[in-house]
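#struct-help
A.M.: can someone run this one for me? Single chain, 637 residues.
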Amino acid sequence: MKDGFIRVAACTPQTRVTDIEFNCKNIVDSCIEAAEKDCSLIVFPELSITGYTCGDLFLHDAFISRAFEGLTDIAEKTAELNTVIVVGLPVSNRGKLYNCAAVISQGEILGFVPKINIPNYSEFYEMRHFTPYADDIFDLDDIPFGRLVFENSFYPEFCFACEICEDMWVPNTPSSEYAMNGAMIICNLSASDEVIGKAEYRKKLISAVSGVNNCAYIYSDCGMGESTQDLIFAGVDIICENGTILAESKRYTGKPGIIYSDIDLKKLAHERQQINTFETDETVDRIFFETEPVWELELEREFPKHPFVPAAKYDLEKRCEEIISMQAMGLATRLKHINCSKAVIGLSGGLDSTLALIVTVHAFDMLDLDRKGILAITMPGFGTTDRTKNNSLLLAERYGASIQEISIAEAVKVHFKDIGQDMDNHDVTYENGQARERTQVLMDIANKTGGIVVGTGDLSELALGWATYNGDHMSMYGVNCSIPKTLVRHLVSYEASRTEETDKDLSDVLKDIVDTPVSPELLPPTDDGKISQKTEDLVGPYELHDFFLYYFLRFSYAPSKIFRIAKIAFDGIYDEETIYKWEETFVRRFFTQQFKRSCVPDGPKVGTVCLSPRGDWRMPSDATSKIWLEDLLTVKP
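D.P.: on it. Structure tokens below:
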């Protein structure tokens, strides 16, 4: 179970109502298939051994006895498999009939978990046959029976529990109790019929239960073979991890099927560890099993290249609108609090300052302030190109902001003369001297006009320390402080599409800014006037750094684990050596540049990853990266 990954499955087998021999054979065949795919846990539907739609035939003792024989037959025929199996069947215990989940491991029946909430409304009539389980726990032929949590003896994170269909649809779900008792995975054996609109609601419910309980959720549903006398079963199988759907079957195929996914148990454990309101409990029996999950899976799970950016266009547009609104609300609140109607922005023609201007425009509109109170200052220096300068001027003009051009060239030359800096020596002093001069200009204009300097630096730059200390590092309110570079690009693109019909000139300049290479423009341009200094050539691709940042901060992944999943995410885009090189750069810079993050200005948190020293991230500026670099070294290609 390297890095916490195990493979799980949800299966809808071909079923014949009451044909136990047929059903058990298909269950065994599916288990063998799953084991061959390195699956550690497979879940079958409710009453999968008999079929769900057996009606009053459940009242026949011979039928119930044969179902139990079918269970023992499944256990015997799967004894050599390295897969834990969860199947459904009716179980008679002390004169009552229970709708149960049975857990099998290496030929042994580990326990029975009876259904607690028995539906008896609308199309459901289960109380006619089954008894709701109460709190009394009693074994059945020395097999545990009741509310149970199953824990792996070798890997405690591999801990699961079962609930059955209706148990998920009630306010006080058993899964919550199981999660508080350590279950990282909830298995739901279901027989959920289809009616219009139910599928989407069910999917949201599964996602919500998984998210609330910080768990993985394996949902297995009945399908082809159940009686359609009154109901239709579509064979809905879903695997979810902490609110995110990882795998989902197609409905109405009329065929049996298995879906698989690789779930990250260590990530779930990390989530629970850091949420101090997630309480633990000891109210259920714990059953241990020794089936060892496959140690190093050949992961089949997909990892998005841009974890900060929603994949679906509709979701992305909604996210962009909300983020810009959140940033604008933060700035508007600050302006109103200090009774300020002036905002000063250094406009470079790059992505970050463009987003800062967009946000400031929205904030001014919220407060009904005159946009002329937005003082956009473009400050050409030794590396400024006509493209970025002209885009700055046009951008401010189209938004109706005040624009002022102040060249910093002569002031920087005087400063360099004072400190003995050779103009031909294009070192860090040459670059940072320009950045600090620009910040001085902005601060002094803010003082002169009674405004505040709106910061433009983003989350990716904070993580890498890619900012000049007391230069662009400083402002009076940093609106982009929790926006990663990969998301900045999408936010500006969204604004371009939003304004395309109302102001095509504005939309066009925004699109050109999106297409402009990321650069501080501190070194002289090429002979043909183009940008010579491209940030990603120096520090590495931002899409890689944002990927590293997300998993390093959000889930505290070890660098070796990040490298493992980065190879999957960026397969065919970057080779292993390139990924390793820039991840090593990320780790080194992240640790050495903490001192810059320890004194960043105020700014709004808009996502789950933030580096504010007053909120999400507390780190000593003198921490060493030794342990993390050593961990990364173990996977060096």
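A.M.: thanks! The chain has 19 helices and 18 strands.
D.P.: also worth noting: The longest helix spans residues 313-337.
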